[in-house]
Write a structure and sequence with these properties.
Length: 250
């Protein structure tokens, strides 16, 4: 199966990689769902769901609660390095005519690995902005910062440029994705995502409808697993390393 995937890659001109928290699991970051996930079904100490704690309405009413869990997620990212799966996508981006990475991850690891064509559909943890006055700053880490961070210009509470629950996706990111999908792809990979959201599933469904080869890499089956052309029940780093090795032999 790995050789067949590599053969398809060698002929592909436009490849889409859709990634989720699982691609960063091999960098030591926890996923959101499934065993050991940040959400793993538990309610927060405040007795509310994690989705409510990390929601836009909660940020507006009780920003200290949202920041408490944002800080937990950011803390898990500290010191995390891209892994072989991120590097494999960079390798292919530099050798194939066009590679686009659509990621749900807010950890910044695709860009840190050297990917240039990246759509961060849930934004990024390391860009802060003031919802009141528009002040903005990029940060390496939140370690040592007063949390919630006050805006140095107007004193309101800063927030990260991430999509919180019950918030709209960034329009620019959606428009860029629509344009790329309109141009079409020869191959679509989904790596390390539970395929929770329709905008993540849709490009795979479009590929299936158009007869475009589809690959899913995830040790646990998802609703997509029975439909894709190639389902690899493997970790992202192991699978993508094997695929690149086979690609180099084509
Ligand atoms: N390699 C590949 N996949 C893995 C690995 C690994 N080493 N380890 C775990 N996985 C898989 C899990 O089986 C799971 O299906 O990664 C997936 C992670 O799923 P989620 O935790 O739901 O993460 P994701 O799909 O990215 O969630 C989407 O939900 O809460 C929001 O904003 C949050 O971006 C997140 C979004």
């Amino acid at each position: 199966m790995i050789e067949a995937i590599a053969d398809q890659l060698a002929r592909a001109r436009r490849v889409l990689f859709i990634t989720g928290a699982g691609i960063s699991a091999d960098s030591g970051l926890p996923t959101y769902r499934g065993t050991g996930g940040l959400y793993d079904g538990r309610h927060t100490e405040e007795g509310i769901s994690i989705e409510r704690a990390l929601s836009g309405p909660m940020f507006r009413s009780r920003p200290e609660i949202t920041w408490k869990y944002l800080a937990q997620i950011e803390e898990t990212c500290r010191g995390a390095q891209p892994n072989a799966a991120h590097a494999a996508i960079v390798y292919l981006e530099r050798r194939l005519p066009y590679v686009l990475t659509l990621t749900q991850n807010v950890d910044g690891l695709h860009r840190a690995a050297g990917s240039r064509e990246v759509i961060e559909i849930h934004g990024g943890l390391h860009e802060l902005y003031c919802p009141r006055c528009g002040y903005a700053e990029a940060v390496e880490t939140l370690a040592g910062r007063q949390l919630p961070p006050p805006c140095p210009d107007c004193g309101a509470i800063l927030r990260p440029a991430v999509v919180l629950f019950d918030e709209a996706l960034p329009v620019a990111a959606l428009e860029r994705l629509d344009t790329a999908l309109d141009e079409g792809f020869d191959m679509v990979f989904t790596i390390g995502t539970s395929a929770t959201f329709p905008y993540i599933v849709q490009p795979v469904v479009m590929a299936l409808q158009d007869g475009v080869p589809t690959v899913e890499i995830n040790p646990t089956r998802t609703p997509l697993s029975e439909h894709v052309d190639f389902y690899l029940p493997l970790g992202a780093a192991a699978a993508m390393s094997a695929i690149v090795d086979a690609y180099e032999r084509t």
